[in-house]
Amino acid sequence: MFSKFTSILQHAVEALAPSLPLQEDFVYHWKAITHYYIETSDDKAPVTDTNIPSHLEQMLDILTQEERERESGETGPCMEYLLHHKILETLYTLGKADCPPGMKQQVLSFYTKLLGRIRQPLLPHINVHRPVQKLIRLCGEVLAAPTENEEIQFLCTVCAKLKQDPYLVNFFLENKTKKLEASKDGGAGLVKEDPFSPDTGQNRNQTPSLVTSTLEAAACQATSPGEASPSPVHSTLPNNDNYNLVSSLLNLTKSPVSAACEGLMLVVSLPEPAAAKCLTENTELSQLLTDRLAQFYRALPQSMDPLDIETVESVNWGYMTSNLEDAAAFAGKRALISFLSWLDYCLFASLTYFAIELEHQCFELNSKKAFPSHPYSHSFSNLSHSRSEVGILTSTALLNRIIRQVTSEALLQETVYFLLGEETGPETLAGITQHPLRHRLIEHCDHLSDEISIMTLRLFEHLLQKPCQHILQNLVLRCLEERNYIENKQQEEREEREHMENDLEEDPLFSDLSPDNRLSSPDWLSCSPPPSTEHTKPDGKTEVHKIVNSFLCLVPDEAKSSYQVEGTGYDTYLRDAHRQFRDYCGVCQRWDWRSSPKSFEKCNLDSPFFEGHFLKVLFDRMGRILDQPYDVNLQVTSVLSKLSLLPHAHLHEYLLDPYINLAPGCRSLFSVIVRVVGDLMLRTHHIPEFTPKLLLVRKRLLGLEPEGMSVDHVTLLEGVIVLEEFCKELAAIAFVKFHASVSTSPDPLATVHRKQTDE
């Protein structure tokens, strides 16, 4: 009580006293602080009961005023005094001893305000960055400490200053080897130095017991005049360079207060190669990112509604500090948002990290070390072992959400390697179980549970749209490299194609299609952009109008219903196909894919062909389109259309060319659909009033007819509708890809990319 009265009285005296020059006023306040330690013997009174906070604030105000009154970049006498008399060093020692109690909090606040308010660069001064470096080591030593907020604010301020001048980070990369040598040479040098000698002129022997007990006790923990011994947390780092700024921030991120993450993000984004290398090799940042991700995943409920997982609002890592008022909207929402927020933080960190690595190609970043994928192995192991449909569905939905959210190239690559493996060589039927998780995920595309099948197919659809070449190579392309799905009779190729075309015209499946019912070349061209005058490509590929007609005429007229409903024509698919193909070309342009198939002379056509586990499951599903639920069929055809859009010559040939001579025992997308159509024609004859029922089901699916009496054979009727629409979509994709390939540019990918830029 008496001390507070003294503080008020002193403020009143200072207000009435005549103003002194800034330097004298500054020295007065500093000496008032030092005299407190000389004259006071009570070391238990909190610092808030003293005048120390007021004097520190006055010193800051003087330094700020001095800078305002001087030209930019000019150092005033008060700042010179602070630097020359090592005031920050002394404050660090007092803060470390925390004497009087609460002094550490005051020192942290003083450092933070000094660095934040003063515009001129202070960190390059040795008498600034050295005590700042020491104070950094004091941060994060104790979790949930009373000074935690001040520690985070101080560290984030230092990070912000380094962000402004990234080269300064080199002052904060410490070398332990040099530190040990300095310790041997210098001994306990700081103990011999009186922190107050430049300011008060007092001899240490004349200093009362409070100064002796606090300052010497704090100083004795140092090993050299310029360096303090590393804390146990820091000494566990593997190499000689310490990055104490990161280590302190990492310790503070373990606290519920997550503002330290902002400081870490600033440090990660520093464009200094040495700092980036030290961050990768000498800190536990990657361990923190992955361990925390696994921790948040384990906190999720065992079962969640997949719709809740998919539709929860987009989150970013700043959400971690938000007040989740609607966290009770569904069970587990708070845990889910925490998980997705930390995932976003990992993604943002890896994106920034990789951008710096690409800008400075002076060291090789090991992405596996920087951002390992081991949290996935803990988190999604139940996909391989769980027999619970609810557990599989929840894990698949979460994995689907993760894949949608992952944009970092490094993390995406590690995620893909974890899910699919790193294999790129030809796939064999005996080797499909080589990577258990990949095998299980593909098998789940044909699960007994339609929900699991749809969710897993959706997962693969999102994977196919990611800018990662390994996904396509691993799932599909490695099986088509040798083109051994084609019969090895090159000399009869043209004759066989003509023969197949004639067979197609005479086939009973198409006997009801007169030439008038076929879509003539002028008709389909009128729905599309102006084509090239040449309909046959120089390499002898089948004329595109024949391919388009082949797909459009696969479904017989009596099984078609789209022509009776407005707005469901072929032209709508053309517009969508053009847009999607353009987007895919933009993604695939940097992958150096061949624009024409590999020549037969270089192909091993005699090796046995296996379509691959992924295509096998998709073709099997496609073959059962008449007996599967509508939603399953939509998802299967959606994945197949995404594959068909890819601008890869072999994939295009295998999926979109009906006239290739398939090797014995091989099947293609077209041949699978032909078998489905054959089954359809046999079954339609046993369904009375097939055409009216088909039209009614289509109108109900489009919302043009209300739900009324149930219709028998509704699964088959819905399958027929999906089949018709899918054939139109494939025809549109074939035309759009042909149109791009016959443009004036030799590279269709470049052509489409240029058109996108022009638009």
UniProtKB/TrEMBL annotation:
* Superkingdom in the source lineage: Eukaryota
Supply the InterPro entries for this chain. FHIP, FHIP_C, FHIP_KELAA_motif
Question: Basic and acidic residues bias: where?
Answer: 490-502
Q: Which residues form the FHF complex subunit HOOK-interacting protein C-terminal domain?
A: 611-703
Please give the start and end residues of each transmembrane region.
none
Q: Which Pfam families match?
A: DUF5917, KELAA, RAI16-like
- Polar residues composition bias: residue spans: 199-210
Enumerate the residue ranges of region (Disordered): 186-210, 490-541
Family label: Belongs to the FHIP family.
Q: Report the protein name in the record.
A: Family with sequence similarity 160 member B1
Say which species the protein is native to.
Cyprinus carpio (Common carp)
